[in-house]
Amino acid sequence: MTSLFLGLKFLFIPNSKAGVSKIRQKLAVDHGAQICSAFGETSTTHVLVDTKVVLTANTEALIRTLKKLGLRDIAKTNVPVVGQEWLVQCVSKSELLPTANYTIDLARPSAKKRKVSSLRKAESRPIVDTTLEPGEKVLDSPNQTSVDVLNEMAEQHRINGEAYKVKAYRNAIDTLQRVSTPVTSYSQAIQLEGVGPAIAKKIEEISRTHHLRQLDVSKGSRHTQLMKLFKGIYGVGTVIAKKWIDEGMTSLDDIKNRTDLTDAQRLGLQYYDEWNERIPRSECTIHAEYVQYMLNRVDPLIEATIGGSYRRGAKTCGDIDFIVTKPDATMEALQADMDNLIDTIKQAGYLQCILHHHVKNKLLTGCSLPPLWNKKVDGQGEEWGKCRRVDFLLVPWKELGAAMIYFTGDDEFNKKLRYRAQKHGMVLNGTGLYKIVRDGSKERHELVESFDEKKIMSLLNVKWHEPEQRNTGVFDIAWNG
Ligand code: DCP
Ligand code: CA
């Protein structure tokens, strides 16, 4: 007990009353200091940063924290922001040491980094491979465990409908996959673009323990399990699943007894297991042969190609996305053909149910391969195939390239292309690539290209990506399976 710090008011960062922070705060109080819980410009005399917890190499995060705690103008303040080593050294030497050697310089990041590194064990900076194209990743990533665990966390948040958290994880994973050196500590992780404090801490925990406690907690939580169960029903999203949980539903039987289900949700319940199972690639190929065979009866010029994960080379697919088109055909012509196809596949027994037909260019269905075709999949049995989710996407001939890009995905790859278009003053969607033309206050979209997939990419200044190269890998569970 001394009066070493008498009259001084310390703001601790992190501001918690636990662990090391608690011990240091007690040390300060025992020597006469007062602790502030927020920054009072007139009263706080020192900001004491735990440089082992708060990454001081990333000044932005620290500045954000300080702002949150009330320090509005960092440039104007005279209050020193120092490493907590200053406090420890003062106590150990029983004198009020100058802060200069311990200052974290928030105005000059490079100078700050040098000072901080003299306080902490020097750590190598993660090396991001900048030669990689968007979506590409380093081979044999040294951070694969972290990537896998973070992917699982993202999946938990997706199940719970927390879109902003999913996005944060995707960004972090995206960067981490491009790092060619091991990222083992908080301070290394926080230096990466797209990695904030919460995820940086998790990367450190995973690296240390090969495990993440929060993931276990989330997976074990009753709420998450029910969200997963209910969202597994076709036609049920986050909002409905949450509502049902709030209403006390605890099982699929509870849901079956509801009187307010849509037709699609009833089908979702009926085919719950089948539609939650991924479809082997070999089976998708037989569906393609079968559908083309049936289409030939309607009009031999119609072509059906599977897009989505199948076209990207996946070993298993969530559903089968047929892109249906015909040379020179308009949407109207295709719709007439589609009506004929529906009759044909209904009669043949392939079409089990229709989920939606009201969207004019889409037919969403459940379909089963007839026994003779199903036998082609594994050479066994004489049974009907499982009911699979099969979508027919009608595409006018002249929009084929844009539609191919859109329906091939993956969705992250598409987002990147759309962003690229935006940067070039253009708009990309499933019908074409358009230039934005301003007419005074009005804005209109002028078609640049829609038929040629390769041309669209080249107009966007993106090198040609084979479909297999469009797996961003962030969420492509099919790819791992
Ligand atoms: N798509 C998109 N944005 C979305 C949804 C879809 O760009 N929000 C595009 C890209 C997808 C394609 O449509 O690759 C097909 O969508 P799916 O949901 O069927 O996704 P995948 O075929 O990629 O994966 P899965 O194997 O799970 O079906
Ligand atoms: Ca698909």
From TrEMBL:
The keyword NAD does not apply. The active site is at K202 (nucleophile). GO terms for biological process: DNA replication; double-strand break repair via nonhomologous end joining. GO terms for cellular component: nucleus. This is DNA polymerase. It comes from Cyberlindnera jadinii (strain ATCC 18201 / CBS 1600 / BCRC 20928 / JCM 3617 / NBRC 0987 / NRRL Y-1542) (Torula yeast). Belongs to the DNA polymerase type-X family. It catalyses: DNA(n) + a 2'-deoxyribonucleoside 5'-triphosphate = DNA(n+1) + diphosphate. PANTHER family: DNA POLYMERASE LAMBDA (PTHR11276:SF28), DNA POLYMERASE TYPE-X FAMILY MEMBER (PTHR11276).
